[in-house]
Amino acid sequence: MDQLAPTSANSSPLTPLGFLERTAAVYGDRRSVVYNRTVYTWSDTHRRCLRLASALSSLGISRGDVVSVLSPNVPAMYEMHFGVPMSGAVLNTVNLRLDARTISILLRHSESKLVFVDVASVPLLDEAFRLFPATVPCPRVVVIEDAYEELPPAPSSALTYEKLIEMGDPEFRWVGPQSEWDPMVLNYTSGTTSSPKGVVHCHRGLFLVVLSSLIDWSVPLNPTYLWTLPMFHANGWSFPWGVAAAGGTNICLRRFDAAAVYAAIETHRVTHLCGAPVVLNMIANATDSARRPLPGPVHILTAGAPPPAAVLHRTEAIGFTVSHGYGLTETAGLVVSCAWKGGPWDRLPASERARLKARQGVRTLPMAAVDVIDDATGQSVNRDGETMGEVVLRGGCLMLGYLKDPETTAKAMRADGWFYTGDVGVMHADGYLEIKDRSKDVIISGGENLSSVEVESILYGHPAVNEAAVVARPDDFWGETPCAFVSLKEGAAVASPPPTEAELIAWCRERMPRYMVPKTVVFTADLPKTSTGKIQKFVLREMAKKMGAASSARPSRM
Ligand SMILES: Nc1ncnc2c1ncn2[C@@H]1O[C@H](COP(=O)(O)OP(=O)(O)OP(=O)(O)O)[C@@H](O)[C@H]1O
Fold first, then answer.
1. pTM, 2 dp
2. 310: closest CA among 412, 533, 473, 459?
């Protein structure tokens, strides 16, 4: 068999961009994108994306150029996931809730050639441009207008998105990758633990993550998908391409709250949506006036932060079917998922099912391996569900690397063949991974590593708790002790009397070893979050630090 080698017939570069043409051929008349009263079919979307790619080429955008976009989940944002890379360019979705300084840094770092900007974010972009040094040219700007918003229109001289689409040729021969390893997107990480890093993914990695996400979540043909997850966050875990592959309908929302989510589900008969655990919490704790009955089965995929078992339990009790996965910007989407075994697991009590589902799970199909390794020895930790180590990954969905940062890339993708996630986890006897913390969030109390996620999950079980985050507070005796920041559910906050610090501490004491029990509880209306819905623990850690050292007496430890 030695003479059998790849030929041009069997080695066309893998890319998710080809999904669009196929879906337009099969489901041309079906709805592709819905936004308020705007409804496109897959034929429309196909033509509009080709026009976009063609128009970008006519503006001089070519292979490898970075094109950025600052936009909420509107149809233009969806189209750019195809149209921009179909011009050969690299799509760079920028978090539109960042401040002007960070946006200015990211645009310069990426050497972006053109920026699409939502009309509401024009002043923010202008401010970012003012921070460019005089010697560095600003990228060209295209404004995305919105007929449904009462916002000042784009200046008459501005090139608008719709004008650009009109300029383009719907018969354009799109620019395919020369190699499946060609870069296709550039995404900056959320900046939860450090400055955002520029993650570059190639066509091949995205192709793999899209197909495996559909299989893993058992997405059927023609789903109706509600865009609650921002597309600017890791390309909405790659579902812009996934919904196209499945011939689904994208329901776009510029902004949402619990009432808007329930209303959209009812109006459009939504079948699927993704959301960080904060979105689940928002849906589960919605007031009666916001809630509507579900018109049919609704599947929610959650990831991005550890979902507390209590939140999974509450969301499923309302009637949603929740799946849980784990991934990073560096993996383009979900690469570990809590594969549900059905049968015996279905027969367990609901709270036990939620506890199992809160585990992150096993590798998805394109991944070669997932492990938890001991930092000191580099060996796998015992599969006992207790011994903590760093979560490492290997497989086809991993990024090419960090843009212009070989040192950080080498630190993350090491010579031993693993990608180091910076997450701390345990491996259970059944081979399921469970994340216990981010390494920077681990609390070390009296020399013992303590998982803030475990303490949080107990706090979430308290009926009055809306959200909880636990961080380290300096302690004169123990070095660090857990400090909990807690927001209460609306009803509980006004009910008399709301729980006190002593009551929450007692609640924890009954349910966890003493060394894990928070020594301090701070009640707050809201917890600080990144725009991707992650709790900013570094902000809370600073607050805990400013509170000064807790001077513990030497309590007896369990
Ligand atoms: N299911 C999950 N359970 C627990 N944590 C999760 C889950 N999914 C994702 N995460 C967390 O999210 C992280 C990936 O987030 P993302 O790539 O958006 O940026 P970030 O890591 O928050 O930002 P930065 O790297 O800039 O600090 C993971 O490393 C992990 O800590």
1. 0.91
2. 459
Predicted confidence band of residue 554 (pLDDT cuts 50, 70, 90): very low
Q: Which residues line ligand 1 (CB under 6 A)?
A: 189-194, 196, 234, 303-306, 324, 326-329, 360, 421-423, 435, 438, 532, 534
327 C-alpha to center of ligand 1: Å? 7
Distance of CA 330 from the midpoint of ligand 1 (Å): 9
The residue type of 197 is K
Contacts of 100-105 spanning 24+ positions with Cβ under 8 A: 100/124, 100/127, 100/128, 100/130, 100/131, 101/128, 101/131, 102/191, 102/196, 103/70, 103/128, 104/128, 104/129, 104/131, 104/132
Homologous superfamily assigned to 444-546: ANL, C-terminal domain (3.30.300.30)
Cα of 371 vs centre of ligand 1, distance in Å, is 17
Classified as helix, coil or strand, 174 is coil
With beta carbons less than 8 A apart as the criterion, state whether 323 and 345 touch.
Answer: no
Return the domain boundaries, the chain.
444-546
Q: Which atom from ligand 1 is nearest to the alpha carbon of 196?
A: 26
User: How far apart are the CA of 512 and the centre of ligand 1, in A?
Assistant: 26
Which atom of ligand 1 is the closest one to the Cα of 453?
4
- Checking if the pLDDT of 461 tops 60, the result is yes
CA–CA separation, 158 vs 17, rounded Å?
Answer: 29
Query: Which residue's C-alpha comes closest to atom 6 of ligand 1?
Result: 305
Measured in angstroms, how far is the CA atom of residue 329 from the centroid of ligand 1?
Answer: 8
pLDDT tens track for 181-228 = 999 999 998 666 667 799 999 999 999 999 999 999 999 999 999 999
How high is the ipTM of this complex? 0.96
In angstroms, the CA 222 to CA 338 distance is 24
